[in-house]
């Protein structure tokens, strides 16, 4: 891995890295110029051929999604840029927005060229005040330099980019919740189909892409398909549906490591490599008990599963929901899994939008049961009850509208399956949590 | 009439050209009003509805979904301080930090100090997990906080 050179993070931390002048001195907007010299479909073909998969959590092939737009649609097409980044453990979008905003705006412009959109909205979570100011400044610079606005760089391509600030709700990251929120409504995810590509923002064809996905687009157009496919994990020959995991990835490491941070590596590094080589090992000389592979929605890897490659299919093979956001949270062996799971369940109960009964009730019941366990009053049947509730909610069993519910169920299923002994002992001994959790604050 | 000044109305109207309809300006309008007035009163909500050509219930429906907005029953203090309690922060002392700040300020999450200076909130993941535990003041995040450094931060003008 020594020869890997970061690309998405290459300019971050350089003096003046956020300014247009310095970005252009490093070849910035050459990708857009190239895209403007091509037909829109050609740009889509390049992204498709690169094998780029969405970085926002679902890993859907990006170029393929773009082809779902209706052909020769006469009216407006929109790009919604998902910068709601709120999956616990995840902060890579923020790092590149704050550190190198122009590579994102270039990616947005290239994507809009490909999908023939003339308006893009960046849905930015409210808490990212610094990102807001850095991005707004970069957008203003682009308008002044005719990189945004009318007839960009003398071509017939016109594009407006607007920043839209959220208001502190995790569900606004779900793509149709985001669309509803942008329209000025409560962020209730929509039933699909219709998918946004057919009927999205303001009921028009819409593409929703994550910030990191769009940053990748910039570099794919600039450096080419072969460069992108030279990194990562090729498709599994035994699985005809696996499109492979190509390109660089921004891994977030947090929790009990010596050097938490955002690290760019080729897709497919193992959890162990990340913890030891990037994260500087577990803090205080302790051992790993569990690792969240990609945000809490994905569940847990146990200490025996640290050699799992963190590509799009690795965590799934170890029983997790998927790679998610590649947010790796390390939990040491002094930590109680009861506290960890309670924290996950409390988050989901707080963030469920309440639209589907199994999700609204299920997340809250799981939180309540864990609260009872951590107060020392757990019952032996609680674990089976938790498994039953977790098994009945989500898109996978088919009872809810969006994937928040699956992401609420997964940590419960993984924790009880992989750490059952610890939960049983906790309940049998009537152990109590030492954390000063403010119980009435939900 | 009169919850919204002409200046605030102008700032809301300035958002209109960004969107194909006025309803899409709802969150922007709520932010503009809450930033200036530390609340969105029922009267302000009605006036926003009028500006956006919506029924007041439509604005209220949106406003009440986002726990972020406060009406006149619970206006915000001058500063809004959020302490993150989600997983990465919890693993590095976020819950203890939240309890300490509650103790220091003499308020529970969601409450405002008696002098109207500070509203304390718990946050769910602020997206700054490499700096756990972290604290957000209005919309600026501060990483690697302790009870001590949070106290200093809150005192800063
Ligand atoms: C509950 C929930 C929350 C989500 N939050 C985010 C988010 O904060 N950012 C994001 O990019 N995608 C998020 N997603 C995934 C989006 O729905 C969508 O798949 C993604 O933005 C598509 O972009 P991509 O194809 O470029 O990854 C979330 C999904 C769910 C179910
Ligand atoms: S699954 Fe949960 S979060 Fe998603 S729409 Fe239903 S209630 Fe809302
Ligand atoms: S968990 Fe606190 S910032 Fe992410």
Describe this structure in words.
The complex is a heterodimer of chains A (442) and B (157). With 442 residues, chain A is an alpha/beta fold. Chain A has three domains: 20-230, Rossmann fold; 245-332, Ubiquitin-like (UB roll), CATH 3.10.20; 337-428, de novo design (two linked rop proteins). In chain A, 40% of the residues lie in helices and 12% in strands. In chain A, the strands form three sheets. A five-stranded mixed β-sheet of chain A has the order 8-7-11-9-10, covered by helices on one side. In chain A, strands 3-2-1-4 form a four-stranded parallel β-sheet, with helices on both faces. The longest helix of chain A is centred in the C-terminal third of the chain and has 21 residues, at 357-377. Chain B folds into two domains: 6-65, Arc Repressor Mutant, subunit A, CATH 1.10.10; 79-155, Glutaredoxin. Helices cover 42% and strands 11% of the residues of chain B. In chain B, strands 2-1-3-4 form a four-stranded mixed β-sheet, covered by helices on one side. Chain B has helices spanning 6-13, 26-37, 42-51, 56-65, 87-91, 94-105, 147-155; strands spanning 79-84, 118-123, 135-137, 140-142. In chain B, helix 2 (26-37) packs antiparallel against helix 3 and helix 3 crosses helix 4 (56-65). In chain B, strand 3 and strand 4 (140-142) form a beta hairpin. Classes of the chains: A alpha/beta (442), B alpha+beta (157). Chains A and B meet through helix 7, strand 3, strand 7, strand 11 and helix 13 of A and helix 2, helix 4, helix 5 and helix 6 of B. FE2/S2 (inorganic) cluster is lined by residues 84, 86-89, 125-129, 132, 134 of chain B. The site of iron/sulfur cluster has 14 residues of chain A, from helix 14 and helix 16.
